[in-house]
Amino acid sequence: MIKVQELDEKTRLLLERAGLSTTIISIRNISNGGNNRTYKLETVDGIFAVKSYFRQKSDHRDRLATEYAFLSYAKKVASVYVPIPYSKSDEDGIALYEFIDGSPITNVSEYEVMEACQFFKNLNQLPQKNDAIHLSNASEACFSIRDHLDLVAKRIVMLQKIKSACEEDNAAKSFIEKMSKQWQLILDKVNDLSVLYDIDTEHLLEYSNRCISPSDFGFHNALKMPDSRIKFIDFEYAGWDDPAKLIADFFSQLAVPVSKIFFDSFSLETLSLFDQADKLLARAKILYPVYQIKWCCIALNIFIPDHLARRQFANPALDVAALKKSQLLKAESLLKSIKLFTQ
Fold it and tell me: 269-302 burial string, b = 16+ CB within 10 Å, else e?
């Protein structure tokens, strides 16, 4: 992560590369995320966002390269939905973007859901989609049912290894045991439904049925503009993926929940772009409870030492005990909500 005292110098370099004035009026930190810090930059040419990306040896993902490449593509095909990427410095791990002066979204209506649909459709329309062949696979991309199951199973195994150092850890271990039993029921149902829908769990999804995914897609990564337009942000995990996973993630993320009443309309609208829409919808229904378990696991990431270290780096004043309790409550609520599709 770039040092504060170096920020002015590095920011001027970004402005110069973007062909903008290097006269800085002010720059201030406005966000400390788990993986990055964002600064609001005011210059004589206007207001911009500077994003400084967290890097560590144990994390091999190039968050800067992923997000900048995705936004460069999205700028061509879905510009009304994303911030403009202006310039980047790979060596310093920072980038200059359009500043989005919007408000957080707390209540999701049909309007927001349909805007998300349109953003996805703009990204995946042919022939423009062919221009995205250079994008890498999304983080944790999966292209067979078996890969999806293995991905979640690995998360559960990792959580089963957490050590009990406090009351919150003990509560988490008890929950993980309960979640693991539910996971076994889901595995049985996945196998039954795969047979019903004639889906080979080992078969890799054809390239024509793969999608360009914003990844971590939801309204926790969106802002509403004064004119009600929606702007989506944060694409550090974006890339090629299974559209069924995008749908399952969209309805499982915890920060700004999306009602399940929109599941069918959202799925049918987004999958209308693909030749095998019916089979992809079946995959989405099969994988939905799988990804609800995954999001239970994601909620409990705070109990994993490496993840906790990143959170504490970004926020040294983090109340670990309070966060653990909060995340465990979210996981418990999600687990209770899981219902398996029967057809």
Answer: bbbebbeebebbbbbbbbbbbbbbbbbbbbbbbb
